[in-house]
């Protein structure tokens, strides 16, 4: 029987934690007996619990004192934090976990740092660190997003040459899957039904990414789009029906959710998995889908060795073909392709979903964007790389979407040594930031002191008018949707091209986008309490959530263009 993460953790802690606590407990029992104070069984149990809590409190307080002393030695101050009532802010942790499904994204600020310009510039060069790697190992292995040092350099150097201009501007794959997606959407709209846009674009990006990376399309679009939660008309697919590609996509999402919960809980996450490893079953599905593709590709590559032109670059070479020129180690191939598949699918799908929501709630921006598309590309022609590069409003819409709803809203970085950040205000002491800090790109990119008094508003013109030169040009590190520094995303331009291509095709076919909240399961709608809050949650008409990437349910209907 395979041991769970919780059992492994207890085994490790037995020597370093349990034995000392039990030893202290036995010492206290002897001292009480020597003093003539016998304890009942219940009293002994209470003493054991009290001993454990006392040791835990001493440990937590010692960490706090150590951090304060190290900060003082550097002439710095601790990052401001919200204080709870229990040791280690345990009350706040439990409250935060309980409110994960109802809070507005970023609403609980006790567990991450909100960056300023200097902090974001400094942290961009930090490593992932051992804590994050341990929580993500089951999903990401030693891939490029979950490694440091020589292993990270290996994965990055292997993938970098593939993302050249010829590859990222090769639009045949995008066009095929965009055409299929739009045809499925039109079918639903003709039936008077709304479409779950997050689901539709997630399938589009997964099918596109899998074909681009593996030369093997997972074909999730073939299963058809889901129906509104309360629709029971003819043609509804049973929830019990099985589709291998959809099972893979669902398992992939479940694994990301479980990994995110680990990061949310922090260093004690194994204790929450004492009886079950929540990544075990999803990763069985993921590996069962992916490994045969890799093994087949390796077998074909070995069989082709020595044949004429076998080593020559081909126009249709996939990332997997490219990687296999360097290694046939199946673990390296699986970790690398799974990491890049996650990025290629989730980040673009997230941004397209957020863009559709923002365009639906800002029809004036949609109208201007569509006018630019029709002027530059026309109503039917396939856009080219040069078309996309010249479309300023399109790029501004995507950037403003990524500013308000970055695809990766939170990130984890560690520094090898204690770090201080110089504040923007020269009269304040520097900030001391310990290793293992989670920082929020989402909150940084909404700060009014960095972006101006209208920072919470959706206004793509801020990337076109004087605000660009006032805020972003002198402080480029306030905008980090694709990270920065050594770990800047290799596929950044690929993502821009794919998102741009799909938006162009959508607005060539549809002249409006309208939200359809009545089509959505009530559990995914914004809670009524948000209207009494502050910030964007007061006006939000969808419920953004996150695992590794941001996602939401956004049901829309459109008006189809008659050509």
Which spans of ≥5 residues are poorly predicted at pLDDT below 50? 109-113
- Count the helices. How many? 20
Distance between the termini: 62 Å
Our estimate of the beta-strand percent is: 5-15%
Instruction: Indicate the structural class.
Output: mainly alpha
Give me the side-by-side strand order of the main sheet: 1-6-5
Give a count of the beta strands, DSSP E runs of length 2 or more. Answer: 11
Shape: globular
Helix content: 40-55%
Largest sheet: 3 strands, mixed
| Mean pLDDT across every amino acid position | 81
Cα-atom radius of gyration: 26 Å
What does it look like?
- With 563 residues, this protein is mostly helical.
- Helix content is 52%, strand content 6%.
- It has helices at residues 5-34, 41-73, 90-98, 117-123, 129-140, 149-159, 165-168, 172-190, 197-214, 244-265, 280-304, 319-324, 330-361, 363-376, 385-390, 392-404, 441-444, 448-451, 466-472, 492-509, and strands at 77-78, 113-114, 195-196, 410-413, 419-421, 431-433, 437-440, 510-515, 545-546, 550-551, 555-560.
- A hairpin with a 3-residue loop joins strand 9 and strand 10 (550-551).
- The model is unreliable at 109-113 (pLDDT under 50).
- This is Cytochrome P450.
- Its cofactor is heme.
């Amino acid at each position: 029987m395979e041991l769970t993460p919780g059992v492994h953790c207890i085994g490790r802690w037995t020597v370093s934690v349990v034995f000392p606590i039990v030893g202290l407990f036995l010492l206290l029992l002897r001292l009480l007996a020597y003093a003539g104070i016998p304890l009942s069984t219940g009293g002994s149990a209470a003493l054991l619990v009290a001993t454990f809590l006392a040791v835990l409190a001493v440990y937590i307080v010692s960490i706090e004192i150590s951090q304060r002393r190290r900060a003082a030695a550097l002439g710095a101050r601790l990052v401001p934090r919200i204080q709870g009532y229990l040791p280690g802010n345990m009350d706040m942790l439990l409250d935060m976990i309980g409110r994960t499904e109802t809070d507005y994204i970023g609403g609980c600020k006790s567990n991450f740092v909100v960056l300023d310009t200097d902090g974001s510039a400094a942290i961009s060069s930090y490593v992932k660190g051992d804590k994050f790697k341990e929580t993500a190992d089951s999903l990401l292995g030693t891939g490029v997003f979950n490694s440091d040092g020589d292993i990270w350099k290996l994965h990055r150097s292997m993938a970098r040459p593939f993302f050249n201009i010829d590859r990222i501007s090769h639009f045949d794959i995008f066009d095929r899957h965009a055409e299929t997606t739009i045809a499925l959407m039109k079918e639903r709209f003709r039936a008077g039904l709304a479409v779950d846009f997050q689901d539709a674009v997630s399938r589009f990006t997964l099918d596109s990414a899998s074909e681009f990376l593996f030369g093997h399309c997972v074909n999730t679009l073939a299963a058809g789009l889901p129906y509104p939660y309360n629709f029971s008309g003819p043609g509804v697919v049973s929830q019990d029906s099985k589709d291998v590609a959809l099972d893979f996509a669902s398992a992939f999402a479940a694994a990301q959710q479980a990994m995110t919960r680990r990061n949310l809980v922090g260093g004690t996450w194994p204790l929450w998995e004492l009886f079950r490893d929540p990544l075990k079953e999803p990763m069985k599905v993921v590996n069962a889908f992916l490994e045969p593709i890799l093994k087949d590709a390796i077998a074909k590559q070995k069989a082709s060795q020595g044949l004429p032109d076998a080593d020559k670059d081909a126009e249709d070479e996939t990332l997997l073909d490219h990687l296999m020129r360097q290694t046939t180690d199946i673990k390296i191939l699986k970790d690398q392709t799974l990491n890049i598949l996650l990025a290629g699918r989730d980040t673009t799908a997230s941004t397209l979903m957020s863009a559709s929501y923002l365009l639906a709630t800002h029809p004036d921006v949609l109208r201007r964007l569509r006018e630019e598309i029709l002027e530059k590309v026309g109503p039917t022609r396939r856009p080219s790389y040069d078309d996309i590069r010249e479309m300023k409003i399109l790029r501004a819409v995507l950037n403003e979407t990524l500013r308000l709803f970055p695809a990766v809203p939170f990130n984890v970085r560690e520094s090898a040594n204690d770090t201080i950040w110089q504040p923007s205000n020269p009269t304040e002491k520097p900030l001391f930031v310990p290793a293992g800090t989670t920082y929020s790109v989402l909150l940084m990119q909404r700060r009014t002191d960095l972006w101006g008094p209208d920072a919470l508003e959706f206004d793509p013109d801020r990337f076109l008018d004087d605000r660009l030169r006032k805020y972003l040009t002198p402080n480029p590190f306030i905008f980090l949707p694709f990270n920065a520094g050594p770990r800047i995303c290799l596929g950044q331009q690929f993502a821009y091209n794919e998102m741009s291509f799909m938006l162009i095709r959508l607005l060539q076919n549809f002249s409006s986008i309208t939200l359809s909240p009545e089509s959505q399961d009530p559990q995914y709608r914004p809670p009524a309490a948000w209207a009494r809050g502050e910030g964007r949650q007061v006006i939000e008409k969808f419920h953004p959530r996150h695992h590794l990437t941001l996602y939401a349910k956004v049901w829309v209907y459109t008006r189809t263009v008659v050509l």
